[in-house]
Amino acid sequence: METGVRGKRKIIQGYVVSDKMDKTRVIAVERYIQHPLYKKYVKRTKKFMIHDPSNESQMGDLVKVIEVRPLSRRKRWQLLEVVEKAK
Fold first, then answer.
1. What is the pLDDT of residues 2-20, one digit of tens each?
2. What class is the 11-84 domain?
3. Cβ neighbours of residue 83 under 8 Å, at least 6 residues apart?
């Protein structure tokens, strides 16, 4: 599903932090990096706008998204699946 003629597409996982727009969600992806000097692991968060054509994800859901062609100025990801629904 992820691979094909166009090559390997990136898949990331994050939590939905905004669902105010129609067919668009904002997700926050957390990653841990090691500080170059102090060697302590620090959390870094980045937000991505994703395309959700059927509006199936809600705020707080854990979702998996896949890289696609540019759909708008800031949307380059599309919803693949809802991993876990918000409580």
1. 555 667 999 999 999 999 9
2. mainly beta
3. 13, 61, 62, 63, 64
